[in-house]
Specification:
mainly alpha, Methane Monooxygenase Hydroxylase, Chain G, domain 1, globular
């Protein structure tokens, strides 16, 4: 018979009175006590944890986005590549979360849906910060956060800052590529619209990647991110339709119809359109 393994014999710490433990460092107790169920429906726990963990991943995505923008602005573009790759992997995790939520059936969701009140993912200020940070800026979307002055302040501050795409284009401009002046001086709070002059610059990069390798790689990192982001939106639509069909969303939107319109939004349109013109 094998002797049961005692980790202490291998040097593992076993006593934590007055010392930092795993649970202390990660604040496990507050996290595991953050699931406040409002009903006795079995699947409410799944619904809450899926959304809470998504918010944690979005917090990390924002951490990486902010660092990537700073690196690009300071000319450390290669350092930003690692962060941009990580953001894509984060959205891969967010995509996988929909697979778990889709195990919930319409019958199971209806047992607690009314208890959500008017709460909706539309009101996630972190998701809105991500959209603003990458360039999808719509000041009308400040309104769902007006009840929280702290959230509104974060979002307004984000609108005054160059987006990830703005920083990428400013980097090209600083390195001698002919990004139009009206792009560099544009009103940052406004949503990005496709610009023929910007597409011409990216086409120059893609036609001669050996000469513009850093810009070429930056472009592909942006496309990688939007690829995963589009998949996240598509999975969102599919999950919602599978669970509630075409009912209105709890936050008052048209539900699936609203989400389908969001699939049409392009974050970096020139990087997609040039694939047709090359």
């Amino acid at each position: 018979m094998n002797t049961p393994l005692d980790p202490a014999t291998d040097g593992a710490e076993m006593s934590f009175d007055g010392r930092m433990s795993y649970g202390d460092y990660l604040a496990i107790d507050p996290i595991l006590n953050a699931q406040q169920l409002r009903t006795d429906a079995h699947d409410e726990m799944l619904f809450i944890i899926q959304h809470q963990t998504s918010e944690l991943w979005m917090r990390l995505a924002l951490h990486e986005l902010n660092a990537a923008r700073t690196c690009i602005a300071e000319g450390h573009v290669r350092e930003a590549f690692k962060m941009l790759s990580r953001i894509s992997r984060i959205f891969e995790q967010l995509n996988s979360a929909w697979d778990v939520l889709r195990t919930m059936t319409p019958s199971e969701y209806t047992r607690f849906r009314d208890d959500l009140g008017q709460s909706s993912g539309l009101q996630s200020h972190q998701y809105r910060l991500i959209e603003f940070a990458v360039g999808n800026r719509n000041t009308a979307m400040l309104r769902p956060h007006a009840h929280r002055a702290d959230y509104t302040a974060l979002l307004v501050a984000e609108l005054a800052r160059p987006s990830l795409y703005d920083e990428a284009l400013r980097h090209l401009y600083r390195n001698g590529l002919p990004v139009p002046e009206d792009v560099i001086s544009r009103d940052l709070s406004q949503p990005w619209t496709a610009h023929a002059g910007v597409q011409a610059v990216w086409e120059t990069v893609y036609r001669d990647p050996e000469t513009y390798w850093e810009a070429y790689e930056l472009a592909e990192k942006l496309v990688d991110f939007e690829d995963y982001f589009r998949r996240w939106r598509f999975n969102h639509v599919t999950t919602v339709e599978r669970i509630i069909g075409f009912k209105r969303g709890t936050g008052g939107t048209s539900g699936v119809q609203y989400l389908r319109r969001m699939l049409e939004v392009e974050l970096f349109p020139e990087l997609w359109h040039l694939r047709t013109t090359l």
